[in-house]
Design goal:
Shape: elongated
Number of helices: 6
Order of helices and strands: HHHHHEEEEEEH
Number of domains: 2
Helix content: 40-55%
Largest sheet: 6 strands, antiparallel
Structural class: alpha+beta
Radius of gyration: 18 Å
Strand content: 15-25%
Length: 180
């Protein structure tokens, strides 16, 4: 990294009110069609100067492409599951601007202040959705956490977008609210 860029990153908290990591988290839950839309968002909604906005978006895009690679690798050979994954993301992003999507090697964490959901392509035909719902009783559909262990309290197995119904959305919303 060149010295000027490092200086800019070091000065970011003082000049913009947030660190680069905080800005990246803010942008992570957003999806802009164009680079310029993200820059405009930071300038108009957060009062960031053009130079800082441009740098934040550039560095966030580099990280986002790495995240996209992680997700692409998870769904290699399991492409039929992508519509389920995309629908789940669409739902949780609508819960609030504080939702952070964090792809990892085998799963995608969905975080508010704490992780409240975990999405994992478990087989070629099924996604396991882990939820943090402490104290919630198990049902036929809302199972124990299984392979998620202590990362989640419950698991729902999903084989089609049609299984993302009102009941499931309510469980996701409840987990989100408990993650304050």
């Amino acid at each position: 990294m060149d010295k000027a860029l490092q200086t800019m990153i070091d000065n970011m908290p003082e000049k913009t009110g947030k660190s680069l990591e905080e800005w990246k988290k803010l942008l992570q839950g957003k999806s802009f069609a164009k680079f310029s839309e993200a820059v405009k968002f930071l300038k108009e909604e957060h009062g960031v100067t053009h130079g800082f906005a441009n740098t934040i978006v550039t560095l966030s895009k580099e990280e986002n492409s790495a995240s996209e690679d992680l997700v692409a690798n998870q769904y290699k050979g399991k492409e039929d599951l992508l519509p389920i994954y995309q629908k789940l993301l669409e739902i949780v992003k609508n819960f609030g601007q504080d939702v952070v999507i964090t792809p990892k090697k085998e799963t995608v964490s969905v975080i508010r202040k704490r992780q409240f959901a975990l999405i994992k392509p478990a087989t070629k035909t099924r996604i396991d959705l882990g939820l943090k719902l402490p104290g919630k009783e198990l049902t036929g559909r809302l199972e124990n956490s299984g392979p998620f262990g202590t990362m989640c309290t419950h698991r729902v197995k999903l084989e089609s977008v049609g299984e993302i119904d009102r009941e499931l959305i309510e469980w996701l919303q409840e987990a989100y609210q408990k993650a304050e």
